[in-house]
Amino acid sequence: MRRSNRVILRNVVRWVVAGAITMMCAFATAQPRYGLSPEVSAVFNRWVLATCIGDEERQLTEELRRYSVPLAAAFRKAIVEGPARDELRAARAAAEARFALRAKFPIQEYRIEGVSEKDLAAFARVSRQSYVDDQVQRFATGYRANAVAGLGIVGGPGAREVLTRIANNRNDPLALAAREAIKAADQR
Question: How many CA atoms are closer than 13 Å to the CA of 66, on its beta-carbon side?
Fold first, then answer.
């Protein structure tokens, strides 16, 4: 076989292998985060992504306790790692959209009482980047704080030590959440 035919054959084989790998990836389903089953992953996500659980608190707390062993490990990891990249991207996109709406609001056309002119001027000066970065940071901190609270509910080996270490670090933004999680665990 001539050299050019071998090169062509090698390229064809490469393309076939690349196509096969691409097809396998297309049919593969994503593994839920931390290796949780889909059912446990749904409970985990409802908890860490919640901004308010209100009337669902009792039911959700029972679900957390039902899956306490896998959730304890997942919450410990979530405290350290924070939200997944896709969750951060979604939070960033939502913050971008909120900023766009905020920028369109004609604040100067309304009389706003209880807010100083200085505060209104500061509100107007906030850049898109500062606003979005702040909102994403708040989302990530809230996610991690929810993981702290979840760990306080499910407990498990080492949970109290993790919570105590966080609670005792005055510079940790999760310290208050950890202190509250310890209090709640002590009341049960």
Answer: 11
